[in-house]
Amino acid sequence: MKTGEPRCKEDPSETFKDGITNGAHWYDVAEASTGAPLSDAVISVAGINHNITTAHFGDYYRLLLPGTYNITAVSPGCMPMTVPGVQVIEGKATELNFTLAPLSNKSISHTTTTNSSPSNTPETNSSNSHSSSSHISDLTHINTSSSASGPQPLQPQEFRHHHNSDMDLFLQRFSTKYPSITRLYSIGKSGQGRLLWVMEISDNPGKHEKGEPEFKYIGNMHGNEVVGRELLLNLIEYLCCNYGSDPEVTQLVNSTRIHIMPSMNPDGYEIAQEGDVSGYRGRNNSNNYDLNRNFPDQFQTITEPRQPETIAVMNWAKSYPFVLSANLHGGSLVVNYPYDDDLLGISSYSRSPDDGVFKMVALAYSRENPLMYKGHPCKDIKEYNDEYFKDGITNGAAWYNVPGGMQDWNYLNTNCFEVTIELGCVKYPPAKELPRYWEQNRRSLLQFIHQVHRGVKGIVTDSKDGTGIPNATITVEGINHPITTNRAGDYWRLLVPGTYHLTASAQGYKSVVTYATVPDGDAEIVDFKLTRDPSSPVIQPNTHEEEFQSFIKQLSVGPGLDQLIQNTATPSSFRYRGYKELSEFLRSLNLNFPKITSLRSLGQSVEFRTIWALEISKNPEMPEPSKPKIRFVAGIHGNAPVGTELLLDFATYLCINYGKNAALTRLINETRIIILPSINPDGRELAKEKECSSSVGMTNAYGKDLDTDFFGNASQRSTEAQPETRAVMELIQQRGFTLSVALDGGSVLVTYPYDKPVHKGVCGIVKDKSGKPIVGAVIVLNGGVRVFSGEGGYFHVLLAPGSHSIEAVAEGYQQQRQKVIVSSYEAAIPIVIEFDADNRIFGLPRELVVASAAAAMTALAITACIIWCVCSVKSNRQKDGFHRLRQHRDDYEDEIRLTSMGSKKSLLSHEFQDESESDEDTLYANKL
Ligand SMILES: [Zn+2]
C-alpha cells in the first residue's frame, strides 16, 4: 500500500480480502551501521507460510488479522532478527521497524516497536476532535520514528480553508513549481464568472498517452461541502511533493493521467460558512440551482435550466477519455454508487449493469477509511443517528432518490465510471480539523485512483496496417454496458476479477471474440486485431448516430479541441482589432485560403465602414442549397468586442485546420459557415480598448442600439431601419439558415443540442407536383416555430425526440400537415412535403435524403460544440445571461424561460429561436 506495489499481489485473494479491513503491519528495515534501507529483506510471520520482501526503501507491508505474532526479518549479510509478541489490533496498522546488524559486526541489533496506542481503537466513544488529535500525533510520531530508515512520503503542510483567490493562487503556485508534472487549465466559468480550475497531474501533462487511463476527482459541487475541496488541494500537494521520491506516487503519476477539480461550485463556496454542520447556505450555485440535480437523467426530465457549471463539466467529461471518477461531497460518510434514481422515483436499490465494479471501487475507498467502513457514520447528529451503511458503501437510490445527479450521467453518457463520496458528517468543519480528514482519507484517495488500473485494457487495431480503430465497441457478455475505444484505439474496461467473454467490434470490420481472465488488483491486457469485412453489412439506421458520436469523440479527444481550448485560454493571445485591422485580417484570411473562403460586403455603416461577411465552405462561390448554412454574428454592440475576436479566432481555426483535422474538414465540406464578425463597426471603433463596462460605442453612429432595431417584419416598423440593420437584414431574410449563433459581448447565445439523444431533427424538401422545388414555403412546427424552405426547397430544423406536427404553407398551394416522430436513435428524419391539389405525397429516394440529413445534423452539432468550447473559455461576463436570470427569478417562473431562451425583442435572437427552439428540455440557450 505504501509503495503502491504491495507484493502481496502474489497472494492476493487471501490477504487483500481479509487483512485490509482489520489490521496491517508496516515496516522499515534498515542496516544498523549506515541506516541505509534494506530492500528485498524477507519478512516472515511464524505460523503463516507466506513471506514477503521489503521494497526499495526497505519498507514493507504485511496484512494481518488482529492477533499476536512472532515476526522475523532476514537480509543477506545481516543478522536475522525476530520480534516476538507483536500485537495487531483492529482498524489500525502496527508499526514495526527492524534495524539489522551486519554479520561482520558484532554490534547489537535493536528494534523499535511502536504499537498504536490501545486507547486509540476506532470504536472508542471519544468525540471527533478528540480522536483527531490522537491521529495527528500518530502521524507525527510515525514520521519521526522512521525518518532514519528510508524516506516517508511528505505530508501536506497547508491545512486551512482556501477561499477562491487563495485556492487560485495555490493552484498557480503548484503548477508553476512543478511544471513537468502539472498543467493547470480551466474548463469554463461559474455563473458569476469564476474560472473552474482543473489541475492535471501526469508525467506528460497536456497529452493523452496511448494506453494510459485518465482519472478525475471533482470536489465542492455543493458549495458548503468543503472537505473534498481541501482534500483535493492536499492531494495535489502530496502528489507534487512526493513525485520522484515516493515509489507509490511516482508510479501512480507515471501510469495515470490524473485530473483534479477542487471546486465545481466556487460561487456557492463564497457564501458558505465555516462551522456549518448540515445546512444549505452555499449548497447551490449562484443561480440557486443544485448542481447535483442538474444533469440529464435517464428516468426523469430535468426541467431546471442547465447551469454553466454543469455544462462545463459535461463538456469536459466528453473531451477526455476518463475511466474512473469520484465526486466528493459532505454531510455523511459513505461511498454512494449508481444508480442514483429509478423509474418510480422511490428509494430502492437501482442496479446498474456494472453493479459489481461499482461495489469494488467503492469498497476500495471505504476499506481504507476505518470509520467509514464501520458504517455508522453520523451517530452524533440527531437526524442521521440511525443511518447504517454496510461496509461504508451504498447504492444511490437505495439511500435516497437523486434525479439529475452527475455520477449516473457520467456512466450513461461517457466511458467513465463515477461514484459520489461523502467525506464526513460535518459539511464545513473548522479548519483545525482538516489534518484529521486528510489522515482519514489519504489512503482512500490514493487507493481509489489505483482502481483505474483494474479490469481489462488494450488497443483495438486494424490487422492490416496496425492503426488504432477509434470508437470500436468492447462488449462484455452479461454486462449490458459497452465501452468504446479512444481515438488511438485504446480502451479500458473496469471489471471485477473473473473470467470474461469479450467482443470487439467496429464498423466495417469483423468482430473478434476472446476470453480474458482479470486478476485481482491489476488490469489484464487484451489487444484486438480486427480485419476489414469486405461484405460489411448495409448501413443500419443507427449508423449515422454512431458515426456522429465517433465524430464528436474524435474531435473532442483529439488534439484539435484540446489545443484550441488551451490556446484560447491564454489571455495574452487575445487582442482587440480596430476596424482597419479587422478588415485586413479578413482579407488576408481570404487571400491565404482562397479555395474555402469568400469575403463580401453586406453594406456600409453610417460612417461608411464595410460590414463584412466571411463565408467558409468547400465551394464558397457556388450555391449549394442542400447544405445547411450556419451563421455567426457578433459585434452588435460595438463596446462588447469579445464576440468579434472570438469569431476571428474561430474562422482562423477552421481555415488552418481544413485538410488537417478530419472532423473540421468534413464540417467545412458539408456546411456553409457565414461569419459576420462586426455589424456595428462604428461603435466598435469608438469603444476600442475602452473599459468593457463603458457604454461608449454601444450604439451605432446615430446613437441607435442595433439590437432593438431588428423587427420581425417591415410592417411593424415605425421608423426607418439603420443602415447596419438594413445590411444585415438582407442576409437574414435569405432564410436559408439552419442555425444562427449571435455573440453579443460576453453573452453567448447558442442553442446547443448538447446531450445525447438530442442531435436530432427533421430535414426535407418542399416540392410541387411536378417535382419543382418551392422556395420560401413556411414550415410551421408544433403550431409555433417557423422555418422557411430555401433554395432547392430544402429546409432543416432541429427537434427533440418525440412527436411533432409539421405544417407547410406556400402561396398558391394547399396547406399540408404531417406528423413526424423524431426517434432517439436515428440521426435525422427525412421528410418530403409535396404540394399538390390532390394532397398526394410522394418521396424522393430515401437514401439521398437520409444521407443529407445526417450530414447536416452532424455538422451542426459539431459547430455548436466548437463554438461552445471557444466561448466557454473566452467570453467575458458582461451582460451575463445568468445575471439577467437572477434578476427575473423572483418575479415569474416563466420569465426565466423567456430570458434564458434569449431576448424576444430583436429579430436576431428571435430568428434564433424560430429555428432552434422546439423543446426546452433538450434544446436550450446557453448564455455564458
Ligand atoms: Zn453534496
Automatic annotation (TrEMBL):
One of its GO terms (biological process) is peptide metabolic process. InterPro entries: CarboxyPept-like_regulatory (IPR008969), CARBOXYPEPT_ZN_1 (IPR057246), CARBOXYPEPT_ZN_2 (IPR057247), Peptidase_M14 (IPR000834), Peptidase_M14_domain (IPR050753). Keywords: Carboxypeptidase, Glycoprotein, Hydrolase, Membrane, Metal-binding, Metalloprotease, Protease, Transmembrane, Transmembrane helix, Zinc. Residues 107-159, 907-928 are annotated as: Disordered. Residues 140-152 have a biased composition (Polar residues). Residues 107-137 have a biased composition (Low complexity). The active site is at 422 (proton donor/acceptor). The chain crosses the membrane at residues 848-871. GO terms for cellular component: extracellular space. Its cofactor is Zn(2+). One of its GO terms (molecular function) is zinc ion binding. Residues 160-452, 575-928 form the Peptidase M14 domain. Belongs to the peptidase M14 family. This is Carboxypeptidase D. It comes from Bagarius yarrelli (Goonch). The lineage of its organism: Eukaryota, Metazoa, Chordata, Craniata, Vertebrata.
